[in-house]
C-alpha cells in the first residue's frame, strides 16, 4: 500500500471541514471545530498548505502546514482514528517535513496521551532532524512544543 501526501483542492473543503471538526472534538472537547469559512480561508492563504494523507487512494488524514517568516509550523496533523497505530503517522509526518526542509515548529496537544507519546518518540528518532529543542506550549490546549531543523528526504 502506498502512502501519499498531496495538496488538498478547494473541492475537498467539505471533507476537510468534517475531518477537522472531528479532530478538534478529540483534541479540544470544549471548543467547536473550525467554522466552514475558516477552512475555506485555508485555501486562499498562500502561507497555508492543506494536505491530504492518503493510503491506496483512501483518505486517512490531513495536515496543515503554515509558513511564517522564519520557519514552517505543522499547525494541524491528523490521522483518522481507524488508521492510527499502523505507522502511517510516522511516514506522513516525515513527508510533511521533507516538503519544506529547514526550520520547523509544532505544538503537542495535551488531550490525547497517544499524541504526546507519538511526537516525543518520533522527533528524536528521525536522523534528518537536528537542533531539536523542547519548549513551552504554544496554546492552552498543548502540553509543550518543539522546534527543529529538518534536512533530508523522507
From TrEMBL:
InterPro entries: Acyl_CoA_acyltransferase (IPR016181), GNAT_dom (IPR000182)
GO MF term list: acyltransferase activity
Pfam families documented for this protein: Acetyltransf_1 (PF00583)
Residue ranges annotated for the N-acetyltransferase domain, each copy included: 6-154
Superkingdom of the organism of origin: Bacteria
EC category: transferase
Presence of keyword Acyltransferase: yes
Annotated keywords: Acyltransferase, Transferase
Enzyme Commission identifier(s): 2.3.1.-
Protein name as catalogued: GNAT family N-acetyltransferase
PROSITE patterns: GNAT
Amino acid at each position: 500500500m502506498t502512502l501519499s501526501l498531496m495538496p488538498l483542492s478547494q473541492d475537498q473543503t467539505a471533507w476537510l471541514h468534517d475531518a477537522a471538526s472531528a479532530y478538534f472534538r478529540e483534541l479540544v472537547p470544549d471548543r467547536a471545530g473550525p467554522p466552514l469559512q475558516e477552512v475555506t480561508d485555508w485555501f486562499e492563504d498562500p502561507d497555508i498548505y492543506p494536505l491530504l494523507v492518503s493510503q491506496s487512494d483512501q483518505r486517512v488524514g490531513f495536515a496543515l502546514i503554515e509558513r511564517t517568516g522564519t520557519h514552517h509550523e505543522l499547525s494541524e496533523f491528523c490521522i483518522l482514528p481507524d488508521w492510527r497505530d499502523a505507522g502511517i503517522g510516522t511516514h506522513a509526518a516525515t513527508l510533511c517535513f521533507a516538503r519544506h526542509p529547514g526550520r520547523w515548529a509544532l505544538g503537542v496537544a495535551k488531550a490525547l496521551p497517544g499524541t504526546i507519546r507519538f511526537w516525543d518518540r518520533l522527533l528524536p528518532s528521525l536522523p534528518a532532524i537536528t537542533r531539536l529543542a523542547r519548549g513551552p506550549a504554544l496554546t492552552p490546549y498543548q502540553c509543550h512544543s518543539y522546534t527543529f531543523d529538518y534536512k533530508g528526504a523522507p
